[in-house]
Design a protein that fits this description.
Layout lengths: L2 H14 L5 E6 L5 H13 L2 E6 L1 H8 L15 E6 L3 H12 L8 E7 L2 E4 H8 L4 H51 L1
Antiparallel strand pairs: 1-3, 1-4, 2-3, 4-5
Helix pairs in contact: 1-3, 4-5
Length: 183
């Protein structure tokens, strides 16, 4: 492959990964072209991109980026996956696909997250984290729980205070009404 073609491939990969903060490196094992096409189609439904790369070109493309650690110890024929809702969604889907019989041989080898290298075990751990949607759900539940508790405390104290004020107003009206009758 000529240097000009390699430079074009590196530039293309840089363009594809522009703005991407995390990637997972996977091995396609001995998947044939039909299984690889099925894998890509499955991933595309989750808005995940998968690109087979030459390791040396990937290293050049990711040089001086937070993604560079992904290919520090890369060996063999590898592909990079990115996209999905977030890194957890990406890791969960790739981890799930490792167990699918149709994609036997497909495995996660590592990746990069916030400029740090992930190994295969780290990817499995990330797959166990709650996704962004789950985190937002948990957070909103905690906020609404505190809000309802605070509201209940304010309303119970407020209704007690309102009852006492109403009672005092009634007493004052009776006292004022009784004083007018005597006059």
């Amino acid at each position: 492959m000529s240097k000009a073609i390699k430079d074009m491939l590196v530039d293309d990969l840089k363009g594809r990964l522009q703005g991407v903060g995390e990637v997972i490196v996977v091995s396609l094992g001995k998947l044939d072209s039909i299984k690889t096409a099925q894998l890509r189609q499955t991933l595309r439904k989750k808005r995940i991109s998968l690109t087979l790369v030459k390791n040396s070109l990937a290293r050049r493309a990711m040089e001086n980026t937070p993604l560079a650690p992904a290919f520090e110890q890369a060996a063999g024929m590898l592909a990079i996956a990115w996209g999905g809702e977030d890194i957890v969604d990406l890791a969960k889907e790739l981890d799930r696909l490792q167990g699918v019989k149709d994609f036997e041989g497909f495995e996660c080898r590592g990746g990069a997250l916030d400029g740090a290298r992930l190994d295969a075990g780290d990817v499995k751990q990330v797959a166990k984290w709650p996704t962004r949607t789950e985190q937002l759900s948990i957070l909103s539940g905690q906020i609404s729980s505190l809000g309802s508790t605070l509201s209940g405390q304010i309303l119970s104290s407020g209704s007690t205070l309102a009852g006492q004020i109403s009672s005092r107003v009634d007493d004052l009206e009776k006292a004022a009404g009784g004083g007018e009758a005597a006059a």
